[in-house]
Amino acid sequence: MHEILTIQLGHRANHLATHFWNTQESYFTYSPHDDPSPVDHDIHFRPGIGPSGEETYTPRTLIYDLKGGFGSLRRSGGLYEDGDVPNDDEVWNGRTLLQTSPAIQPSSYTTALNAGASTPPQLTTSTVRFWSDFSRVFYHPRSIVQINDYELASSILPFENWDSGEELFRRLDGQGGGDSGEGIIDRDVRRWAEECDHMQGVQVWTGTDDAWGGFAGRYTEALRDEMGKIGIWTWGIMEEQGRGSRAKQLLRAMNAAKSTYEISPQASIYIPVAIPATPFPPYLHLDRQSEWHTSALLSMVLESMTLPSRLRPGQGRRGLLDDLAMPLNVNGNQRIAALQCSIPKAAEPDSHDVNLLPADNDQRVPGSNTSEGLHGGNDLQQTNARFDLDLSCGETASSAFGPIHHKASEHVFGRVDCSRDPDQSLPEINGEDDGISRKRRRLAGVPIIERYHSSLQYPLIDSFPSIVPQPPSSSKTTPVHASLSTSSRISTYVRRLQRIAGRMTSPDEREALFNGLGEIGDAYEEGWNSGADDDSDD
């Protein structure tokens, strides 16, 4: 069945995940007269039995947040009354600690949904206080994992230092453990994994420039130890560059450095993302201060990028998580990828020229003299102009020492493009076997490219903010083009983190962190002289 288990770590990640689950819910069809959904729901949802014996279908996810972070969401996940949660193997049976605090009232949007209203009140930035305020799905009680050691937005004990997150994981991993060995993986993950027929992978959404980075670092390590070669996609969500005092920016940069060092070697692909500090495209109307807004944009691109992993056969080219990751990790140790996107109809409402790459079948680009359909990495800079929004680490996750200046020449090792647009399909790849094609391109030192296309556009549902122009039709959908790539500019980003680590870490951990980041950066210069070491940021 190729199931995917999702792990959500922290308030920022849960905002993004809520948009994701709302989008998955919108793909369901309920009338026998409707066409079957192109999305295979069994990949991300699990069947079960509700309190009255009715069948349920809930996200296959684990949701971690601090005390006060769940808002009005009940421990039961909404399927049960909290006092009626059955005590069986299907529900959390670990050690519990009863704490009573004033109840948070649900938003008017949530209240209307629970009452069965077909048109709930419109959400605004002022009415969305928590991610649960715009959630449209019920969660299984086992999905809810509240961490009571810290409180959300606490000024007394803020959860913002990487080492605090690492310490928290180790402490929770040891609760009830001892000789029994029942740590977090056994207690929280194992039953979800055992429900799967053939799990294709795990996707982890986490903050990485705060304490959740330390928690995610140890969590990813535990997943890799337990699950071996299974695909693990980790999306590291970071604060917008330049926010807060200089001390806060330096702390976030140091957290990002440790997260990169700890997470990227364990993950199949590690994608650090953030809202860019640069001006938005004119069609994008985003409130930078609203987590509801910023997480909506990130979720739209993330959901589009991974769409091939949940398509039904015959609904577009399908690619499992391992398939999507393979073209990116060209040299075997390139596990950090950059994310870009565009919304073509919004950017160019009168244009239908929305190819991500040239349309000729041999994949040549202007100025390329290579043969057999191969093209040079630098030529891809011409096609990168098609993407007008860069959410990658190289543009958004710099430190308080100033912006990152990329070399004019960027070498691309691998790229995966996903287009969801019924009016425009991507050109097919040469008719060779994928393995042979990749080997030829790798030996020639040119980018390995994979392309996926689906006519299923991104749904603009009522829980999604109006950050992109609403379509004139009644379909309420928008096309999205998304791309992941591994390129030499990732080395520039990692080198920046390496210099920060050299300045700010204690002597006892400086050598390992500094040298480890150096080895990670080397992977994006292998076989290609980028001159990254000559670049000075100071």
Number of separate helices: 14
Computed structural class: alpha/beta
Q: How many structurally independent domains?
A: 1
CATH homologous superfamily designation: Tubulin/FtsZ, GTPase domain
Family: Belongs to the misato family.
GO biological process, one term: mitochondrion organization
Function: Involved in the partitioning of the mitochondrial organelle and mitochondrial DNA (mtDNA) inheritance.
Pfam families: Misat_Tub_SegII, Tubulin_3
What would you say about this model in short?
30% of the residues lie in helices and 16% in strands.
What topology does this entry show?
Layout: E1 4-9, H1 11-26, E2 45-49, E3 55-59, E4 61-67, H2 108-114, E5 144-151, H3 162-174, H4 184-195, E6 201-207, H5 211-227, E7 231-237, H6 246-263, E8 269-273, H7 291-305, H8 321-325, E9 338-342, H9 344-347, H10 380-384, E10 389-390, H11 393-396, E11 412-420, H12 434-444, E12 448-454, E13 458-459, E14 477-478, E15 480-487, H13 489-504, H14 507-522
Parallel strand pairs: 1-4, 1-6, 4-5, 6-7, 7-8, 11-12
Antiparallel strand pairs: 2-3, 9-10, 9-15, 11-15, 13-14
